[in-house]
Write a structure and sequence with these properties.
Structural class: mainly alpha
Transmembrane segments: 39-60, 72-91, 111-131, 137-158, 170-187, 202-227, 239-260, 280-303, 310-331, 337-355
Keywords: Membrane, Transmembrane, Transmembrane helix, Transport
Number of strands: 0
Main location: membrane
Family: Belongs to the purine permeases (TC 2.A.7.14) family.
Membrane topology: Multi-pass membrane protein
Helix content: over 70%
Radius of gyration: 22 Å
Length: 379
């Protein structure tokens, strides 16, 4: 996969820096910061993604577990946290975290094109969020998390057509294992169902989670395509904020319309009064769920920008064991044999993918060393 196009994004940026880099970039490179800032960005985005994802999923389950009933409200908090990003939008520190800051002035995409991208992504995001909320309402959080592992397989499928993703034996092995880990949950024992959830509701939650996961895989592949073809004209990390705010604003508007059209907004006061942890905790659960999803979104889009959509999904899968294990203690979820096998297969699939990434990074170094040795011997 070292030859695939999605890996070329940072390489092109580095070449642009060499030819057109600003004085600041040259100074930072001399100080040793330039060659590390991309990995600093990747590390920070990874932390944002894993922490945001884990906490947001647990808080989402807590909302329903303690008396929350509105799927539209549970979906809205997944996107409504975007205003917290606005103050950071004008801060200059993100410029230090990008590996794509060339000094060239290129023609920017039209407002119409950008608007179309944001609206399209926002609609997909809104649909995925609602489907995931249905799954979270009817399924244990551990089951939702394990099903979500198949997002890597869906993303690889869509990336093959949209981003020329290449498949190696290790990638194929990873995708097969992740698919099997999700299919196993279809044969899960009914005793794992939440109290008060019927067989039909459990099936609906399972199907909605699968479709939501597939939609998320498609969205990541589309984001990678848009970032490379359309949004990276200026090659600024600021484009991450543009994309996140644009798509989450659209998704929030769509979900707000659904919330009022469904009449679930009338439940707000009643839910707050009857919430098992009290009014203040009710508000805090919704508030921190919104913030954590924004942290996750920033990390996810940042990884798509710096590496690839498939890499972003692999890192998301890395957080797979965290939520089910915590859910056993917090929500008394059952961790039976099928779930354990599903988790092991998903982790195995992730390791297989990471090993392929290691080979992709290692092979060019070996080739470069070989060429250097041959050049020295010939002289």
């Amino acid at each position: 996969m070292a030859e695939t196009r999605h890996i070329q994004l940072p390489i092109v940026a580095e070449e642009a820096k060499g030819e057109n880099g600003s004085a600041t970039d040259r100074v930072m490179t001399k100080l040793g910061f330039g060659k590390h800032k991309r990995w600093t960005c990747i590390f920070l985005c990874t932390i944002f993604l894993l922490c945001g994802q884990s906490v947001a999923l647990l808080l989402g389950r807590l909302y329903f577990d303690k008396g929350g009933k509105s799927k539209w409200l549970a979906t809205l908090v997944q996107f409504a946290g975007f205003p917290v990003l606005i103050p950071f939008y004008f801060i200059s520190w993100p410029k230090l975290l990008t590996a794509n800051s060339s000094g060239t002035a290129s023609k920017q995409p039209s407002v119409l094109k950008l608007g179309l991208v944001y609206v399209t992504f926002g609609l997909i995001l809104a649909g995925n969020g609602f489907l995931n909320s249905v799954g979270m309402q009817y399924l244990p959080v551990s089951t939702v998390t394990l099903i979500s592992a198949s997002q890597l397989a869906f993303n690889a499928f869509f990336s093959y057509f949209l981003n020329s993703q290449k498949f190696t034996p290790f990638i194929i092995n990873s995708l097969v294992l992740l698919t099997i880990s999700s299919v196993l949950l279809v044969f899960h024992d009914d005793s794992s169902r939440l109290a008060g959830v019927s067989r039909g509701e459990y099936a609906a939650g399972f199907i909605c989670t699968i479709f939501g996961t597939a939609g998320a895989g498609l969205l990541f592949a589309l984001q990678q395509l848009a970032l490379r073809k359309l949004l990276l004209k200026g090659q600024k990390f600021k484009v991450v904020f543009d994309l996140v705010i644009g798509q989450t604003l659209t998704a929030s508007i769509v979900i707000l319309v659904g919330l009022f059209a469904s009449g679930e907004w009338k439940w707000f006061n009643g839910e707050m009064e009857e919430y098992g942890l009290g009014k203040f905790s009710y508000i805090m659960v919704l508030l921190w769920t919104a913030i954590c999803w924004m942290v996750f979104t920033i990390g996810a889009v940042g990884l798509v920008l710096e590496v690839s959509a498939l890499f972003c999904n692999a890192i998301s899968t890395l957080g797979l064991p965290i939520v089910p294990i915590i859910a056993v203690f917090v929500f008394n979820d059952k961790m039976d044999g099928i779930k354990v096998i599903s988790m092991v297969l998903a982790i195995w699939g992730f390791i297989s993918y990471v090993y392929q990434q290691y080979l992709d990074d290692y092979k060019p170094k070996i080739e470069k060393t070989s060429k250097t040795s041959e050049a020295c011997s010939s002289t």
